[in-house]
Amino acid sequence: MKVVNIFHALFICNVREVRHNKTRVTLAVSRAPVQLALPLLVMAILLFYHPWVLLKGRCIKCLDWFTVISRVLTTLAIVVLLVFDSFRRRLQLLALLTDLSTASTTVQTRGLLSVRGLQLGVLFVCNVLAFVDIVDTVYRTGSFALIPGVLTGFVVEHYILLHALFCQLLAESMAHAYDNLRREIASQPNWHGTLQDMLALEQCLQQHSEVFGFKLLLLFLHLLLNISFCAYDIARKLIGEDPRSGVYHLSIIVSQGSAALFGLCFYYNQLLVKVSSYGK
Length: 280
Known about the structure:
The chain crosses the membrane at residues 36-55, 62-84, 113-132, 144-171, 216-235, 247-269. The chain has 280 residues and is mostly helical.
């Protein structure tokens, strides 16, 4: 669970590894008030710097403005709810990660690795294309006025995508733990140890539903709304008189959201399959 420290540094979770000596490593809740206040402060600052929210030079009767401002405000509301949910569930997350860290999760399959690699590859390419778009826009216009809005969308969107990746990795770890338990039962059944592992994994599954249930609802809501709004804007722009305006940037958002949505669905389906096959 060393990856927890990475998400802790990125303000995604309030739990990190604490190394007491060379052999003893524990998990602990760390800087929870900062994890609550700092993301909210950053989102509030970015909100006031976003050009679509400032309404400068925008027509309030324009359909473009309504679709974009709806997506922006919905996204910011979801971010606020994610921050508060992470703070409220920090102790339950600590208990879940502590129980899950005792299970062996080293077995991995090529299918999982290829899907994760494809997903991360799409996200990397989208980030590169977004950076190229920023440089091209500044070069063509000679103005940095759009940079705050682009950076706002980048930070907020990736904060949500990292939450989705964190949930996805935990689902993957639990799927591996169930797969290892099934292999252990099939090869050398040790009923005492197997029973303990079974009870621990069942508790982890229940804790996972409590800790990530509301978070997953928010993530799926955001991804579906974001993909729907952007796909609608792309279709309308392609049919309209100025098809190239904004299509490139919207396509990047749709690709990122689709990759994150596919990853969540795939790994949670894998967890469901492993749990079902373990019960047979």
